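From the pipeline queue, job 12 of 40. The input is one protein chain; the requested action is below.

Action: predict structure.
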Amino acid sequence: MKISYEALESKLNYVFKDKKLIELALTHSSKSSINNEKLELLGDSVVGLAVTNFLYNEFTDQDEGLLSLLKSKLVSRAFLAKVADQIDLKDFISVGKSVTNDQNENNSIVGNAFEAILGAIYLDSDFETSAETTITLIAN
């Protein structure tokens, strides 16, 4: 069964050129050996650099200690899962039968998929676009 990702793309304000990337980003390891884990790794770096760049440029009068604290909160799994909840990301994640609804809604699966989506956007476009998407989603 093919899932339509148009609703998610609308919430992301990004339309994938390569639909295989969004599908991969939303495929949990319980579903397939071809899954979102590598995109999650990439997305983690995209989020970290996007947030750090934003904080550095927006809070020029703050010291490194405060910026580091803000960054750690904004890139935490719990915070990213809340951002993912705002766009109903869990409704699009493909998990295996061994994953219960409670597990699918946990911070780890949803937060990891959110990072994978941002990694996929990076691959589908460029850093500037993925960083802008990251900051827009986090700021809302």
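Job complete. The two ends are 32 Å apart (CA to CA).
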